[in-house]
Amino acid sequence: MDDRLVINAGLSIPRAELSWKFSRSSGPGGQSVNTTDSRVQLIFDLTQSPSLSPMLRARAMRRLASRLVDGCLVITASEQRSQLQNRRLAEDRLIQTMAAAVAPGPRSRRPTKPTRASQDRRISAKKSRGQTKRLRSFPDRD
User: Fold this and answer.
1) Of 44, 47, 43, which is closest to residue 22 (Cα–Cα)?
2) pTM above the 0.85 mark?
3) How many Cβ atoms are within 10 Å of 75's Cβ, its own excluded?
4) Tell me, which fold does domain 4-102 have in CATH?
């Protein structure tokens, strides 16, 4: 295995910054379910990580605020029966979560004026709609 998790082209996290916790998983597994610690918790300390620049750290902290526990991002995987598969699954989730958290935001919209033709189309549509409604009414009795 490589010693770094590549998040995007400009960011990678060393595996030494990751902490792991293992516990018994619920769900399928037969007789071995009560004896193997296949549930995985991957803990990444976002506040103390030297691999994040201050700008990226602030952006990730803001976007992941609801998921942080004491400044740490905790990702749990227990879907698979083997610990190794759950570790890989947790790492993949960390990569996806961090890539979304540090991605730049959408470009701001530059306001534009409606074109003359679009204004004319809007006015003519309003006039034809009004004409349709006028034709539905009863004629005046004089």
Assistant:
1) 43
2) no
3) 20
4) Double Stranded RNA Binding Domain (3.30.160)
